[in-house]
Amino acid sequence: MLEWLPKIDQYLSDFDNLIDNIFLLGGSFNHQTDVGIEYFLTKLWEINKPYKKKIWIFAREELKDVKPIFKEYCQFIKTGAYIPELKCEDNIQYSIKLATKNQNVYEQGLDF
Fold first, then answer.
1. Helix (H, G, I), strand (E, B) or coil at 111
2. How confident is the model at residue 43, as a pLDDT?
3. Are residues 55 and 19 in contact, defined by beta-carbon separation less than 8 angstroms?
4. 14 in any annotated domain
5. 9-to-17, 26, 48, 57 alpha-carbon distances in Å
6. For residue 77, how many other CB atoms are within 10 A of its CB?
7. Under 8 Å between Cβ of 78 and 70
8. What is the layout of strands, in order, in the sheet containing 104-107?
9. Angle CA(31)–CA(19)–CA(39) in degrees, nearest 5?
10. Could you tell me the CA-to-CA distances from 36 to 21, 66, 69 in Å, in that order?
11. Which of the listed residues 1, 36, 44, 94 has the most CB atoms within 10 Å of its CB?
12. Total of domains in the chain
């Protein structure tokens, strides 16, 4: 179950100069159990301490609906579901090109 811990640590160590951010993508993290999410995030936070990489979560929900645990451990939160009718090319926030107009990026300490 914990085989990913040393793998992430080794990857961050081997490629420290090439990595600026850790992106949590795929699935809906907000729909997982609080215990599972807290465990995952605290372990990731511990591994990341010496590397000080920014942790991002890509959520479909709006910021008000994102679980508080993400606001504690993630420095950036991307919100908004992909809606094909809102597709655009010019929504760039924090150097991230977002796919649709309804998506936003929020920064810890500034926006939450």
1. coil
2. 93
3. no
4. no
5. 14, 21, 8, 19
6. 23
7. no
8. 21-24, 54-58, 76-79, 104-107
9. 30
10. 22, 15, 11
11. 44
12. 1
Q: Residue-wise pLDDT tens for the chain (112 aa)? A: 568 888 999 999 999 999 999 999 876 776 777 788 888 899 999 999 999 999 999 999 999 999 999 999 999 999 999 999 999 999 999 999 999 999 999 999 999 9
Quick one: 9 exposed, middle or buried, by C-beta within 10 A (0-12, 13-18, 19+)? middle
Strands 87-93 and 96-100: antiparallel
User: What's the domain range around 64?
Assistant: 4-9+20-107
CA distance 77 to 75: 7
Residue 15 lies in a domain: no
> How many residues are given for the chain?
112
